Amino acid sequence: MQQLDVRTDLTVVGGGLAGVCAAIGAARQGLSVALVQNRPVLGGNSSSEVRVWVCGATAHGVQHFARETGIMGELFVENQYRNPQGNPYYWDLVVLEAVRAEPNIELYLNTDVRSVAAGDGEIESVTGWQMGSEKEITFHSPVYADCSGDGLIGFLAGAEFRTGREPRSEYGESWAPEVPDDNTLGSTILFYSKDAGEPVRFVPPSFARDITRTSIPSQRVIRTDAYGCAYWWIEWGGALDVVDDNEAIRDELQAAVYGIWDHIKNSGLYDADNLTLEWIGAVPGKREYRRFVGDHVLTQHDVLGQVLFEDRVAFGGWSIDLHPPGGMYATERGSKHWHPDGNYHIPLRSLYSRNVRNLWMAGRNISASHVAFGTTRVMATCAVLGEAAGVAAAVALSNGLTPRELATDHFPLVRHALHRADASVLGVPDTDPANLALSATATASSTLRDLSVDVSNGTWSLDADLAMILPVDPSLDGLELLVDATEPTTLTAELHDPLKPQNYLPLAPLSTCTVTIPAGEKLWIPLPLSHHPSTPSNVVLVLESNPALSVHTAATALPGTLCFTHRTPSPDEQYTDQFRSWKHVLPRVGLCYRVLTPTTAYAPSKTIGGYSRPYGGPNLWSSEDLAWDPTPTLTLTWPAPVSLSEVVVILDDDVEEDLINLHHHRSPHEVLPTLLRDYTLEALTSQGTWTELATVIANRQRLQRHVLPERVETAGLRLTARATNGCPRAHVVSIRAY
Predict the structure, then answer these.
(1) Which residues contact 50 (CB under 8 A, 6 or more apart)?
(2) What contacts 226, CB < 8 A, 6 or more positions away?
């Protein structure tokens, strides 16, 4: 047996997505990082050991333009290319390679941290046992991040924490119980099945549950074509201690899985003769345990009110998703959901312990009430919290600050660092003084100015209300719509305000009109609606249902536009507003329409400063159609030469596209079409000519960093788009120069 000492700037305990992103985020800021994981693979509940979908702010398409960027975004996009079929082992490789690509990270797998040396409100070291190699390893760092899920490190260090459910009186949360209790969300074990091509016998083990004696057959959905996380409801242990009773919970979950499979195979109710079990989990996927107390406890009000925290460092969008303590044996539905009107913000003050000075936390153990935890717990949100904590830890350590000092007195430091990392923050403009592009002027060879789509590829019957998102920049003064009418009729159209820049719902009426339409096909109908916002924003156009009318649809939609229809909520859903029952059911198509006012929503200036994702508008530059401008250019010009060492290009990875790590659904594109595939970057010389700085070929990522081999003095940068990955126009989100 060996006893080893490891000394790094930061020790991250927990190798789930929160820990992975915390480690990578800190390492990219220059810290040396020890990433300690007690399993043989990274990824936590998303790994091949557990196989839970990585869900996040998109909420499976309920929220819009919401997919995460930053490190989690990189993992999503890379997995889409490498692993479009959703193979769990390929996903393991995507995560592992992302960690191994960082030279500042030392990875310790199979290492279970079991003891903590702490005193005077600080952690001094943590010690773990590396199984298999029989090594006792002590990790020494000035700061630590507990990304372990269960929160063992903070617990052993004496950090304040909570488990269970707070009473309603504590935070005034309507979804909290009147009386506090120790109930939590339970754990889950999943299974995979496959068609063997021939009959396969299944003899159930003696411990398999007879599920016909439970409420499962009547209260849960069992299908032969379902597997993996489609059986998320195989959950139990919420009324127990999910850590102390982990072994019993695992046994009961496996007994239930075998009982469900026995029911599928042997009850005679299913066409399952050729089906066989391919995999069953051995590690329970835990949902909830300790929640540490930080300087701010996120609550139901923060989530549903979409509170704009000054120290916001991440966002979420999943519903408040709570489950009954009885899990799969409960007679009520397996979950209930309360969706915010759009994405909500998470503050830095929820990511560090209020009484252990050098402890950061990320993942499902952040400072949140049980109710708010119901939305922050999903893994893509945990991942962006991990990156935020890792970046913040690096900024605080580099500047000799405690987490509290950073959050309260020096927050712009971490805000600039998160922007430079392209992390998942919402509504935060780039004001980093190190970004010399902020003093440049942007021009382009062409710019999309016509907010119109007039080539039809089909029709959609107005059997239900239909809504469309339009960017208004600077104003809207009338539009036309292409329709078919089976008889003379009328159409009522309304404009609505979504109220917040991250919302895509008709939440407040602005104006309405009713127009008369004759019978006929392909009729351009004027809608005399106008809107003049004080700042660029989105507006929601609502068309009232009329079965006599059909609207013409287009094969593609312009950036920042969406179409969706009204639907009736399911019984387990609750909404903050009656209009929340809108569903995006027109997959990636738009309407045929003509906005009569030229738009500046896609101006070259959008690539300088501002927001680096949709927020009150698309926030990107778009060229005209490539058929008209085949090699569009975007140019930054300074009034006097500047000295550059790095140029960062952020491209459009279509954050409306809902990507996922495993088999929930398959996006049609392995490389997102909106990304530039090939481009060149040039600098203007003192002689007035252009010299090449970089050429990118076969790009499939959003973020490209061009570190220059030596400083360049220039008064201009030029990006020339040579090819896209399928989009008919060139898009650039941001150009930054340092």
Answers:
(1) 44, 190, 281, 283, 285
(2) none
Q: Where are the alpha helices (DSSP H) in 287-336?
A: 300-304
Cβ pair 75, 47 in contact under 8 A? no
Is 640 exposed, middle or buried, given 0-12, 13-18 or 19+ CB atoms closer than 10 A?
A: exposed
What six digits make up the tokens of 488? 């003379």
CB 563 within 8 A of CB 504: no
Q: Tell me how far apart the alpha carbons of residues 559 and 396 are, in angstroms, rounded to a whole number.
A: 37
pLDDT of residue 579: 43
So what's the pLDDT on residue 580?
52
Return the exposure string of 302-323: e unless at least 16 CB atoms fall within 10 Å of the residue's CB, then b.
bbbebeebebbbbbbbbbbbbb
The Cα 139–Cα 109 span in angstroms is 14
Rounded Cα distance, 520 and 91, in Å: 52
Q: What are phi and psi for residue 549, nearest 5 degrees? A: -115, 145
Distance CA 309, CA 371 (A): 19
pLDDT at 661: 77
Give the model's pLDDT for residue 586. 60
Sign of CA dihedral 45, 235, 297, 308: positive
Residues in the chain, overall count: 738
Q: 3-class SS at 357?
A: coil
Give the span between the Cα atoms of 260 and 196, in whole angstroms.
Answer: 19
Helix axes 70-82, 88-100, angle to 10 degrees: 130
Q: Let me know: does 539 contact 617? Beta carbons within 8 Å.
A: no
Contact 591, 468 (CB under 8 A): yes
Q: Are 667 and 587 in contact (CB under 8 A)?
A: no
CA atoms within 13 A on the CB side of 427: 22
Please, are residues 613 and 656 in contact by the beta-carbon 8 Å criterion?
no
Phi, psi of 350, deg, nearest 5? -95, 5
Instruction: Measure the CA–CA gap between 618 and 505, rounded to whole angstroms.
Output: 16
Residue 443, number of CB atoms within 10 A of its CB:
16
Q: What stretches in the chain show pLDDT beneath 70?
A: 567-589, 663-664
In order of 203, 225, 234, 396, 587, the CA distances from 195 in angstroms are 17, 10, 22, 54, 30
Q: Please name which of 414, 334, 420, 350 lies closest in space to residue 382, comparing C-alpha atoms.
A: 350
Q: Do the bridges between strand 359-361 and strand 633-650 make them parallel or antiparallel, or are there none, so unpaired? A: unpaired
Distance, CA of 635 to CA of 580 (rounded, Å) = 41
Question: 229-245 as b/e, with b when 16 or more CB fall inside 10 Å?
Answer: bebbbbbbbbbbebbee
SS (H, E, C) 647-695: EEEECCCCCCCCCCCCCCCCCCCCCCCCCEEEEEEEEECCCCCEEEEEE
d(CA 228, CA 111): 27
* E-assigned strand segments in 507-572: 508-517, 520-531, 537-543, 549-554, 562-566
Residue whose entry in the numeric block shows the structure tokens 């809207």: 476
Half-sphere exposure for 167 (CA within 13 Å, toward CB): 5
